[in-house]
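Figure S7 source data.
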Amino acid sequence: MRIDVLTLFPQMFESPLNHSILKRAQDVGLVQIALTDIRDFAADSFRKVDDKPYGGGPGMVMMPGPVFDCFEHVQKLSSEKGRVILLTPQGQRFDQAKALELSAENRLILIAGKYEGFDERIRIGLGAEQISIGDYVLNGGELAAMVIIDAVVRLLPGALGDEDSPKDDSFSDGLLEYPQYTRPEVFRDMKVPDILLSGDHAKIAEWRKQQALERTKKWRPDLLKDCDKK
Ligand code: 6GU
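Tokens for the predicted 6-chloroguanine complex:
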């Protein structure tokens, strides 16, 4: 997979992309992630990329010119057309199903904006879909882009040490994950449930399913409602 990110703050990505699973996935060639600075495509010597909104109002809006020029440059970096995604709180809410869907693509082109938003002609002209990572406002799309990259890349076959592990994650079956324990067997008077020490794999699987269902009912009943709708 190739992921391109168009951003005004490419340096923000350095640390998250250079640690742990994301770093290894790039090192072994599962994913190639390229950052391009939108400001390099500004038309003037002040490197201006935003301007006041027509009609008045507070804040600044991303100008279409630099974003279009940057996008056209980036698109030519690979023969894959790519799925174009604008990061904005107005977007469709990102979830595990969307992460799985995006992990099947050959190329993603993520566009992160700062300031109060994008000139509407960016969305229309680029034919971009819009994604939000939740119902709150961030200062820009950068952190959202990193969240999406992290969630998508860990689903690429081979990204995790153990091929089975993403299947057991919370949300992958619409439920929260069952409780996990490791050594020691007793910690500050809290004991690991006997069933996990029993060696009876069928009983353990049944217990885990039950636990996952119970904690989803208790902590995230909204997820069960979503299940009914499906
Ligand atoms: Cl993608 N961008 C911004 N600025 N805020 C957000 C978001 C994105 N998703 C949730 N809040």
